Amino acid sequence: MIPIDGLPVLTAAEMHAAEQAAMVGEVTEATLMDRAGSAIAQAVARLAAGREILVLCGPGNNGGDGYIAAAALKRQGLAVRVAASDAPRSTGACRAAAIWGGAVEALDRAEPAPVFVDAIFGTGLSRSPSDEIQNALARLAEAAWLRIAVDLPTGVAMDNGKALGKVPRFDVTLALGAVKPSHLLQPAASLMGQVRLLDIGVATRSHARTLTRWHLPEPDANSHKYSRGMVAVIAGSMSGASELTALAALRAGAGYVLHLASAGVSGSAAPHAVVRRDYTADALDEDRIGAVVIGPGLGRDADASARLEAALSGGRPLIIDGDALRLVELGTLAKHKAPKILTPHGGEFTHLFGEVTDDKLSATRRAARQSGAVVVHKGADTVIAAPDGQAILCPEASPWLSTAGTGDVLAGAIGAMLAAGLEPLAAAEAGVWLHAQAARRLGKAFIADDLADALSAVRG
Ligand SMILES: NC(=O)C1=CN([C@@H]2O[C@H](COP(=O)(O)OP(=O)(O)OC[C@H]3O[C@@H](n4cnc5c(N)ncnc54)[C@H](O)[C@@H]3O)[C@@H](O)[C@H]2O)[C@@H](O)CC1
Ligand SMILES: Nc1ncnc2c1ncn2[C@@H]1O[C@H](COP(=O)(O)OP(=O)(O)O)[C@@H](O)[C@H]1O
Ligand SMILES: [K+]
């Protein structure tokens, strides 16, 4: 059971191609199914800790994996029963059911067991499961002590995070061979419990992967405040938001943070480590500025537009967030040649790029290509994409992030990473990782100010 940080994420088409490529020489579909079945059995035996196990098997290869796993669990002397939604249909499932060879209960009459293993449908799901299957899943899941899904919970589509019908909540999902988009995309991701990968010897390559920490810049003996990274935050009508961004940039590790606000607006808030200057048209004429953040608390008036225009033509690496995402036009983004990162939440994304009609991964990739920017499409399933098609899917950090100002903190954290010299995609990933870790560490009912402060602690 492998933790999924930093692993490739494969769509249905990519997974199919990877499986085909793996089937050479002695390796057949049956080999892969045997590997999957025995890896599932090993994981289930460990998690069940001696409790009785009920495996629900479907008619296809997901069911085949279930039969092989049940046979292996039985050989280990564990108490295991099998129930089926249908007779086995695929060649793999027929062979696997024969290997099980034991009793098969009817789904609607199966008695619950403390450990419930769902091997009804996996990546082959093409429509909503029947009511009979949905009801049986709900009944058996409800009565179980531990719920384990094989590959994907039955009822979850593979690529778009959609639940086709009623899907119970699982405690553990065992992804076979590769992580798939629905393991991370909402609402499906919330139903999975812990997602763990089982290796079945299929080589996986993809331009998408899951979030991990590997790019946090560290100072060394030669570092000074400017080499650590100078971030300029352009403020507007609501300076509380931009103050949060400035604080977060410092706490994430920037060496120097400049808060640029209209005369009389800036200068009151802590901490003193933020350098406050009045915003002027030439405020960005400072070569040492490594990243400019514009948008948090900017407002949408004429001043805000002028500041955005100046930031776009200033040519410094840029993070465009909040109000600036409502003011910017996709056409004018191209004018800005330096690296840029857009950080829209769902509403801002729709405003700029239109409604997501397919799935969040594809839509974010398209947006990155269209804008020439790295796009951090925020939410409980944040997706980061670069114009070249690389993408990073992020597991849910904490639902307590749904409070005002946490996005301002994220913009500051990403600003610090960009100013430290990371490439835009790496800067976005590092900022999102830090932000998520800080949220997890804080637990419940934190506020955005706590989140900014906690960034220092999670740098550790
Ligand atoms: N292809 C391979 O090489 C491997 C596949 N493996 C397993 O195979 C699974 C995919 O197997 P399948 O492609 O057979 O698909 P599934 O076992 O997920 O689904 C079985 C079949 O049921 C039918 N079906 C789809 N939705 C339905 C619905 N709502 N109601 C009734 N019938 C429905 C479809 O014809 C589908 O092919 C993976 O999730 C994984 O568990 C593993 O054994 C490892 C190797
Ligand atoms: N339910 C949730 N679960 C996990 N993360 C969330 C959730 N809701 C919001 N977030 C995260 O919290 C932050 C909110 O950003 P945003 O919507 O811009 O807020 P604000 O503009 O108030 O700062 C983003 O990083 C987003 O990914
Ligand atoms: K399943």
Overview of this structure, please?
K(+) binds at residues 62, 118, 154. The chain has 460 residues and is an alpha/beta fold. It folds into 2 domains: 12-209, Rossmann fold (3-Layer(aba) Sandwich); 225-458, Ribokinase (UDP-N-acetylmuramoyl-L-alanine:D-glutamate ligase). The protein is built from 15 helices and 17 strands. The chain has helices spanning 12-22, 29-48, 61-75, 91-100, 131-143, 225-228, 239-251, 302-314, 322-327, 330-333, 346-353, 360-371, 406-419, 424-442, 448-458; strands spanning 53-57, 80-84, 105-106, 115-119, 146-150, 172-176, 194-198, 208-210, 230-234, 256-261, 275-278, 289-294, 318-320, 340-342, 374-377, 383-385, 391-393. A hairpin with a 5-residue loop joins strand 15 (374-377) and strand 16. Helix 14 crosses helix 15 (448-458). Residues 322, 345, 378-380, 382, 396-399, 401-402, 404-408, 410 line the site of adenosine-5'-diphosphate. The site of potassium ion (K) has 12 residues, from strand 4 and strand 5.
